[in-house]
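Page 42, continued from yesterday. The earlier attempt failed because a stray header line got pasted into the input along with the sequence. Redoing it now with the clean sequence only.
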Amino acid sequence: MVLSREEIIKEQLGRAVKDILEQLPWMAEVFRNPSYDLNKTVENEMDFFLGAVLGEILERYTQYLLNKQIKPSTEEFAWINQTLFSRANEFKDLIRKIVQV
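This time it went through. Structure tokens are written below.
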């Protein structure tokens, strides 16, 4: 079955979200390095983790698209950003559950 460009873009974004959320416990362990107090640099741990998650999702998603040789259009980038940021509260809830922020 051959997927359309739109289906590939949507499927790959879903895959990137899933992959990064599965890595969240490891990310928390790295960021909460006991030899350095994260609070010395970051005032709000939740927003820090949200930023890290969003950044990782975008990085992973970009790699998926590069592998498929797809360069999203301006409209597709707008959809990607809208999709991710509209899910910010969902991501925060998952971060709270997974890493107890």
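Notes: The mean pLDDT is 88.
Reminder to self: strip header lines before submitting.
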